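Our working data are protein records whose layout never changes between entries. An example says more than a description, so a record of this kind follows.
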Amino acid sequence: MDTGYLKIGDISKLTNTPVKTLRYYDKIDLIKPGYVDVETNFRYYSHSHILALNIIKKLKLEGFTLKEIKELISNTNFENFIKLYKTKIKNIDNEISNLQKVKSRLNSRLDLLLNTRNIKDSINKNIIIETKQFPKREYISIRNRCSLTVESVLNLCNKVMYKINESNVNIALPYFSICHGDYSTLDTNNVDFELCAFVQSSSINNDNNLKTLPEGLYVYSIYQGGYEISKVVYNNIIKWINDNGYFITGPVIRMYIYGIEFARSIDQLIIEIQIPVKK
């Protein structure tokens, strides 16, 4: 055996590479020892392996996987390097885009939670009815007839999330629902129910098949609880609308300010009812 060979422990110390890692690189054919003693099964490495290990460390710092590094060091063609680096940059751009979507959703959720904390203690003590002018709002949705149970709503929620991923759009919270039909006489076992998510304008294109909540004035009120409490709030809103000379221009919209993923039960839900109106 050439005395220029280094024992696995020695090259481990020289390159700050754990022995376990060197054995793994051997197993996946990334870096093979220069010599293996057939009697002792000891691995020995040459000084050229020091350079190879340093190259691997640099490529790992650049974000390449071991599979990608293996391809890079096994094909030293210059054009191949360029191709692999372009592919890596494209993949990183996609990861950044996906992380920005996740960050946007987290910020939306945090804003909702902070707002909920500010109003949580006062909800249901007094029914407060107010108006607000909203701009046009684009949304993506799934519409189906179902019962107003946690299981049914969660099932629709899973379908909406799948549609969001398929459409590759950025959403803004909260999720909301549209109850089609007369809200005061809804059959909770058979509701024409549309579960929706707002879509941020930056991700809208002509292929998304989005729907629109029209720009205009909305009467709204916030409550905590299930459908029975919502009917009380709804009836108060209807009285307020009639008393103030407005008329309704669309269906009831329910914004899930504190949704089922946090509330865990219908009684703990915090919902904002919005009803579009005109004078």
Observations:
- The first strand starts at residue 6 and ends at 7.
- The longest helix spans residues 78-119.
